[in-house]
Amino acid sequence: MQIPIQLIVPSHTLKVVDSRALIDSGADISCIDWDFVRKHQLPLQKIAKPFQALNADHSPNKKGKISHTSTLFLNIKGIAQKITFYVMHLG
């Protein structure tokens, strides 16, 4: 299921990116795509110890380890929550 969202950069600019999110109720983490982060110049934080991303069947994701996060406000219908997303190459 996809829903309309806004991502808000928590800085003095409060940059807003309108998008759609895919809801995966079985996911263990919240993720965001590398290309989306680059396109919208969202902030990145390098994590101390990169880790292997796993697919739904628990096999290793062939597109590499997770090495960065992006902390943003996720706004859905006027309710905003600060979330740290793991940045990875999504299919």
Series of H and E elements: EEEHEEE
Tell me, rounded to a whole number, the average pLDDT.
91
Radius of gyration: 13 Å
Distance between the termini: 16 Å
CATH fold-type name: Cathepsin D, subunit A, domain 1
How many domain modules?
Answer: 1
Strand share of the residues?
over 45%
Tell me the structural class. Answer: mainly beta
Helix amount: under 10%
Q: What's the story with the biggest beta sheet?
A: 6 strands, mixed
SS elements, strand count: 6
Unreliable segments of 5+ consecutive residues: none
**CATH C-level class:** Mainly Beta
Shape: globular
CATH architecture: Beta Barrel
Count up the helices. Answer: 1
Description:
With 91 residues, the chain is mainly beta. The chain has a single domain, classed as Cathepsin D, subunit A, domain 1. The chain is 7% helix and 59% strand. The protein has 1 helix and 6 strands; from the N terminus they run βββαβββ. The protein has one helix at 34-39, and strands at 2-8, 16-22, 31-33, 45-54, 60-76, 79-88. Strands 1, 2, 3, 4, 5 and 6 form a 6-stranded mixed sheet that branches. It is globular.
List the helices and strands and how they pair.
Layout: E1 2-8, E2 16-22, E3 31-33, H1 34-39, E4 45-54, E5 60-76, E6 79-88
Parallel strand pairs: 3-6
Antiparallel strand pairs: 1-2, 1-5, 4-5, 5-6
